[in-house]
Every structure is written in C-alpha cells, then in structure tokens.
Amino acid sequence: MKKLLFQLDTDAHPAAFDAVVAYDGGADHVIGHGGVTPDNVGPLVEGAIFTRAPKDKKNTALFIGGSDLMAGQELLKAVKKKFFADFRVSVMLDSNGSNTTAAAGVAKLALSRALQGKKAVVLAGTGPVGKRAAVLLAREGARVSITSRSLSRAEQACQAMKERFGVELTPIEAVDNEARGAAIRDAHIVFATGAAAVKLLESRHWRNNRTLEMMADANATPPLGIDGADMMDRGAERDGKIVWGAIGFGTLKLALHRACIAKLFESNDVILDAEEIFAIAKTMV
C-alpha cells in the first residue's frame, strides 16, 4: 500500500523543500495543499482518516508547514480536534523548519556541554526557529532570554511559548549589534536565529567573553549572524568557545527531518511537535 503524505501548508504555496524531504523520508506520494487554515482543514483531515481500514491507516500521514509558526500551531490544534477513537493518522508540525532546525542545533549544543543551569541568549529569537530553540534550551534546564529589536515582540514570543510549553523565558530589547553584545556579556550559550544575511554580533562582542562557552548560528547566508564563526563549524573551538554553524548542524537537521517522516508511517497515532522531534534528535547525535 502506498505511503501518502498530505502536506498542509499555511502559506499560499506548499514548500518545495518540505516536499523533497518528505520523499527522501519514505513517502510514496506527497499531496500538497496551500492556504490551509483551521476553518478549511476539516474535509482534508476527514478524507485522510475515513478512507483506509484500521490496519492501513498508518500509511496515511499529515505534515503541517508554512512560514508562520503560530498559524501552524493553531492548525495542528484544529487537526487533532478532528481525530476520535482510532479515526486518526500521524501528523508532524515543522513550520519553517522550526522544530527540526532548533532540535538539531540544541541537540548538538547539549552533546558538546551540559546545558543545565546555564544562561542562554537566543538572538533575534522571535521567529519560528528562535522560539523553538528557546523552548528546548529551557526544557534542558537553561535560563533563556530572547532578544528582539522590539521589546513588545520579545514579550509576545515569550508569552506564546509559556502558554504552549509552560517555560519561563526572559524578553530583551536589543536594537543593534552593540545592544546584542551587551545582552550576551554574562551568557554561557548564544544561539543566533536571525534572518538570512543579517549580522547580529561582531566578533569583538564574543571573542573575549570569559563566561561564553558555546555558540550556534542558524544562518547559512553570508554575512553570518555571528561574525567570526563559519557555517561549516562542527563543534569547532574558536577563542575557547565551541561553535556550531548552520551547515555544521544542518546535516543533522535534514537527517532528523527524514527520520521524522519515516516515523509517521510506523503507526497512525504519532504526533510530532517540538518535544517529540527533540527526543528523536537526541538519539541521533
């Protein structure tokens, strides 16, 4: 029986990236739907859960993507509300690659050194990857702050993640590189999650930082988020700091994404969000 993955994207057009990885993860057919919302997803879910016998439902799965993480979270809620008894299929949430990217980066940091009790700063952390990275670091016992050029945006991100995961995050307004440099002065961990080709820190902000132990940068487009790092860094030591670049932990991100797709087809009751995806990541490092 064919393994069918329905790609439910909150953007107008389903992401080609997610479709390619879905095939590489073992899906036989990927059926993409764009512009999916909680209001119109019902018939798509019903078509997935009512069409195959109980023993065959594991061969149908749903993937929720798109650039808006909060929209993805709401869509996941709506999808789950349609499930009942054994009328359900497995589903994965990875809006903008947020869960797999954050899980891979934090798993590599956790492999490098203990996170418990450490102070972590997620730079430009109000985007999808930043929010999830902050959550995962906090769940590993770190004391986590999120920076943004807008304090209100940082506060909203922290509140949204508290409501979803119950973690306490600290918002920081940092309008420029100097402010971000000040924000990391007593930090042990820095995770840069800004937009592509946007420099968030100058090398002088971190090279002589005596408390700083580890850094990760999710940006693979020059200039990098952390000046002086390299996108290929795989736990490289730079000025006494352990550094992971976007390609350095990106290999795990892609492998993790594929592994999660494969897991969707093991049974019809798998739900993969940040916690579950991170648990899988930790088995792969």
C-alpha Rg (nearest Å): 19 Å
The count of strands amounts to: 12
Q: Please name the CATH architecture of the largest domain.
A: 3-Layer(aba) Sandwich
The span between the termini is: 32 Å
What general form does the structure show? elongated
Are there runs of 5+ residues with pLDDT below 50, and where?
Answer: none
CATH topology of the largest domain: Rossmann fold
| Proportion in helices | 25-40%
Q: Please tell me the overall pLDDT.
A: 97
Structural class: alpha/beta
- The CATH class label of the largest domain is Alpha Beta
Sheet bearing the most strands, described?
7 strands, mixed
Walk across the major sheet and give the strand order: 7-6-5-8-9-11-10
- The SSE order reads EHEHEHEHEHEHEHEEEEHEH
Strand content: 15-25%
Task: Explain how this protein is built.
38% of the residues lie in helices and 20% in strands. It is of the alpha/beta class and 285 residues long. The chain folds into two domains: 4-93, 3-Layer(aba) Sandwich (Rossmann fold); 100-249, Rossmann fold (3-Layer(aba) Sandwich). The strands form two sheets. The protein has a seven-stranded mixed β-sheet with strand order 7-6-5-8-9-11-10, sandwiched between helices. The protein has a five-stranded parallel β-sheet with strand order 2-1-3-4-12, sandwiched between helices. Helix 4 (98-112) crosses helix 5 and helix 8 (246-264) crosses helix 9. The longest helix has 19 residues, at 246-264. The protein is elongated, with a radius of gyration of 19 Å.
